[in-house]
Each structure stands twice: as C-alpha cells, then as structure tokens.
Amino acid sequence: MRSGLRSRLSGGLVLVLLAGLLAACGGANDKGNDNAAGSPELSLSEMEAKAKEEGSVVSVGMPDSWANWKDTWEDMQSKYGLSHTDTDMSSAEEIAKFEAEKDKPTADIGDVGIAFGPVAVEKGVTQPYKTSYWDEIPDWAKDEDGHWLLGYQGTIAFLTNKKLVANPPKSWEDLKNGNYKIVTGDVTKAAQAQMALLAASIAFGGDETNIEPGLAFFEDLARNGRLSNVDASLANIEKGEVEVTLLWDFNALNYRDQLGKDQYDVSIPKEGSVVSGYATIINKYAPHPNAAKLTREYILSDAGQINLAKGYARPIRDSVKLPDDVAAKLLPKEEYASAKPVGDYKVWEQTSKDIPLQWQDRVLVHMN
C-alpha cells in the first residue's frame, strides 16, 4: 500500500459525506478523556499505567517507512514497554477492519486521510480521546468530540528540476508565464492531482464550491502545450525529463532529497494552495484501548511531532520547536501563509464527482 512516503492522499481518495458524530467526550487538560462512552476519566499517569499493563499496541496503516512512524514505535517500546505490530492498508480498509472485527478485535489504532475520519465516526467504530494538546490543534483538523484528529498535514507544492528550469516557479503566475511543461498526475483518478486542481482554484479566488478558476488555468496551459500526461511518480521524475511536478509537500521534499537537494526546488505557491492531512482513529473495540490513547498522546507530543517531521510530514502543532537538522528537511512556516484547508468536505465530495468529465472536456481534449 505504501512505498516510503507513498501518498495515501494521492491514491484515489474517496471523499464522503460527513455524517452525525458519536457521543461527546470530556474536555482535555491535564487528564485523558473517556476510555469509552460512559467510562470514568483517567489521568495521563493512570492511562500510562494501564497501557503498560496492556503491554502492546496494534496499528493499521502506520508502517515504519511512512512518515517515520518507525521512531515513534521505537519510543513507545523504550518509554512505555509497548510492543508493536502494524498491517499496512488503505484508509477504507482500516475502517472496514474495525467494523468487521468488532466481536474479535485485533487492531487498536489507525491513520486515515482526513476525509475518512467522518466515515469512521458514521460507521460507529471509533472512540474519543482528545489528548492534552487539544487546544493547539486547528478546528479544521479535528472532530469536535475527539473521534479523529490530525497528527500531520500536507500542502500542494511545486517540485522543480533546476537543471531544466533556470528560474523555479514560486507562484501560479510564474507557472503560467513559464515555457516548460508541468505534470499534475491523473486528475480523473488521483486525489493528489485533484487537490492540485483545487489548489489552483483557491489561488485564483475559488474554493471547493467553485473550481472554475483552476479549470481555466489548466485549460490555458493545455492549449499552449504546457501540460504533460506522464504520471507524477518518483520514477518518472528521476528520469530527469520532468520540469515541474505538482505534489504534496511531503512527497516533493522526500523526492528532492532522494534525487539531489541541489538539483530540485520545492515551494508552496504564494497566491494560495490547499492543506489536508492524516488523522488517527482509535478502534471503539480496541483490545488495548489505553495503549492506543497513549500512542495518540505521544504522536501529538513534541517528540512525536518531531518524529513525523523527520519523515517530511509537517507537524499539526505549530508550537513545536524542531531541531535545526529536522527543520532543514521542511519548508519555512511562512511559505504556508496562503495555504487553506478544505472548508466543507461534503461539498468537495460533490464537486469532485464532476472533475473527471470536466477535466476531459476542458483540459485533456487539448493534450496530445
């Protein structure tokens, strides 16, 4: 399912209707939240003690190679004595597993694309836990009751081969005014590519309700022979024939470092882009519920956020001070000033259904 920082966001993400939320949990301060609906609230120290008694945490969709989960699992072992196993799978598969195994659960925690958080809640397979860092998490990045919350985020960026493009683009206008080809990936299928379309729409005054500005932008590029039909993959970029690729920043930064930091430039377009991310969900039927909550707590801690940043995933907590060598892997915070999250995933679900036909009629028709 994942190869290094493989993009779950880039692989056919199915956006779905955000449904009614489950039972609310208590406020977050120095205590953990409800272990399950109606159960007593535990302090962090009590939760830690119970987690140690449980002795292990079982994850899905959180393999060592993705977003540097490896360091977090090693920390959970060394700090709390929790052994760990993971089965890699897609967001939809994680939710299906929680639901199918409710009578004999095996998994405790999963990591899903943000659009799948509400799906998990609708299916009734999650339990709430807000963590002591709750107030630092943006409203767009969490379920109001703590059933899901983002640990890290991604933003559409430009990856430019500096050997082929003398002046790497820093804005959508730069992109428009260049004479090089651009790769978006398959906008008819891939969520990363569709989010690139949305990012351009946001930059030119649109949003998830109005992608016309983005369609017009890419239509103009296609008419002028500026769009390439190749896949936005590391293999294609590595051939040295792709000038500019639109990717999630974590993919772009990872690719840059693999291919040669001096040869590639990564930037967030200054007029605007789109922000999304990944959320942890705790299985309602988790065999090790306290270990799962302690894991979420650790993911949101400074150390946990730094672990993710080592894997090119931008922390969700802005207050975290990254070590200089880790900060150097990421882009400066100021580059994200104009990046915006999707305001309404219900609307985006409806909008995205029409994208394949619109892209075919408006853009692909002008491409060779």
Question: Keywords for this structure?
Answer:
14 helices; two-stranded antiparallel ribbon; 368 residues; 35% helix
How does this structure look, described?
The chain has 368 residues and is an alpha/beta fold. It has helices at 44-54, 69-80, 91-100, 117-123, 172-177, 191-203, 212-223, 234-238, 249-259, 289-300, 302-310, 324-327, 345-353, 355-362; strands at residues 31-34, 41-43, 56-60, 83-87, 109-113, 148-161, 182-183, 227-228, 244-248, 264-267, 273-282, 314-315, 339-341. Strands 3, 4, 5, 6, 7, 8, 9, 10, 11, 12 and 13 form an eleven-stranded mixed beta sheet that branches. A two-stranded antiparallel sheet has the order 1-2. Helix 2 links the parallel strand 3 and strand 4 (83-87).
List unreliable stretches of 5+ residues.
3-39
N-end to C-end Cα span: 31 Å
> Please, what is the average pLDDT?
89
User: Helix count?
Assistant: 14
What percent of residues are in strands?
15-25%
Helix fraction bin:
25-40%
Q: Structural class, please?
A: alpha/beta
Topology:
Elements: E1 31-34, E2 41-43, H1 44-54, E3 56-60, H2 69-80, E4 83-87, H3 91-100, E5 109-113, H4 117-123, E6 148-161, H5 172-177, E7 182-183, H6 191-203, H7 212-223, E8 227-228, H8 234-238, E9 244-248, H9 249-259, E10 264-267, E11 273-282, H10 289-300, H11 302-310, E12 314-315, H12 324-327, E13 339-341, H13 345-353, H14 355-362
Parallel strand pairs: 3-4, 3-5, 7-8, 7-9, 11-13
Antiparallel strand pairs: 1-2, 5-11, 6-9, 6-10, 6-11, 6-12
Summarize the structure.
The chain is about 35% helix and about 15% strand. It is built from 14 helices and 13 strands.
